[in-house]
Amino acid sequence: MIEVPRHIIDLQPYKPGRLIEDIQKEYGFERVIKLASNENPLGVSPLAIQAMINSIHQLNRYPDIASMTLRTKLSEFFHIETSCIITGHGSEAIIQTLMRTFLNDDDEAITVTGTFVGFYVITKAIGIKLHLLPLDENYGFDLGAILDAITPKTKVIYLVNPNSPTGTIFTKKQFEEFINLVPENIIIIVDEAYFEFVTDNPDFPNSMDYRRDNIVTLRTFSKAYGLAGIRIGYGFANPELVGYMLKVRLPFEPGIPSQAAGIAALTDKQFLDYYLKVNKTGKEFLYNLYDELGIRYIKSEANFVMTVHDSEEEVNRINEQLLRRGVIIRPLRPFGLPHCLRVTIGLPDENEIYAFALKQIL
Ligand SMILES: Cc1ncc(COP(=O)(O)O)c(C=O)c1O
Question: Regarding the domain delimited by 6-43+270-361, which CATH topology (the fold level of the hierarchy) does it fall under?
Fold first, then answer.
């Protein structure tokens, strides 16, 4: 009999948004609208598609272990040394590498209830004690409460800005006060998976502008760049931390097509700009819809909007009724917000189908 550690037996695995194919089968629909996982509804950048196709002929070879071409491209794009850049099989893989690299068994992590579930799963999978603090009254990160919760055992603080699933940000002023008070032996992860959607907000602190030795910035190609399926993310940290993480990371991640796609996607400004425009218009559409229906929502700095309801029963009812109409959105119990729903901003006709269904239900 194989003995399995208690924390693995108790582990709740990551539960993604429902698959289009499942809902098609379950309800017999031809068209299902998926607005559940903050994916890019436009599809994949044509430049990235071409780069991936071109890369296929090299798949008998292992990838460049250092992702040097991609890191050089990122280095030019973001004006930072390649030694400060790490790439991974999605930004989630970089979180996992970081946690495996720097945490001993007794070290602890802090974040909030109401943020990216992947972090909860990773900490529990490696048996790290995780302190979850409540969000503030506006569904934002309460950085003051996090400071108060630091103990000598704290090794990592995980922040998400803009946060998912709430869409809120903490400001430059809040971030600057915070980092000045966090001891230097604690790693502050700033997960900026939705960075591209917030760059025109002057209050947003781009964590790359604060290159302290204990700050790690994480970014991804999965959201704005439309490459969720190929798994490619990157991060910025001081070269010493990057060096240790590279020792621990799976040697050949990310794969050849992933690296090629990332390089090409960075150059496809037209695709990105168009998506940002579509997203902005879609967000206004959803705000108007919620205003009209009297649904409480949180203003979002990303590609999704969170709505707040009276009860989990109401959330489940709306979710179930939407599924019956071929629309998949995300109930937020796994994120610790059982009375909330999150909808990814889709294409105009997808938003309209969702709106039509929601009006029928309510
Ligand atoms: C805040 C946040 N971080 C990370 C991820 C995962 O990103 P990746 O696909 O790069 O692993 C997500 C995906 O939903 C996310 O919302």
Answer: Aspartate Aminotransferase, domain 1 (3.90.1150)
10-56 pLDDT, tens digit each: 998 888 878 898 888 888 888 899 999 999 999 999 999 999 999 99
Q: At what angle do helices 269-293 and 348-361 cross, to 10 degrees?
A: 20
**pTM of whole model > 0.85?**
yes
Fold designation for 46-268: Aspartate Aminotransferase; domain 2 (3.40.640)
| CB distance 116 to 160 below 8 Å | yes
In the reported structure, the alpha carbon of residue 83 is separated from the centroid of ligand 1 by a whole-number distance in angstroms of 23
Report residue 14 as tokens: 């990551």
SS3 161: coil
Q: Is 159 in the pocket of ligand 1 (CB under 6 A)?
A: no
- Closest-lying ligand 1 atom to the alpha carbon of residue 89: 11
> Domain residue spans in the chain?
6-43+270-361, 46-268
Tally helices (H) and strands (E) across the chain.
13, 13
**Measured distance CA(103)–CA(105) in Å, rounded:** 7
Dist CA 37 CA 140 (whole Å): 20
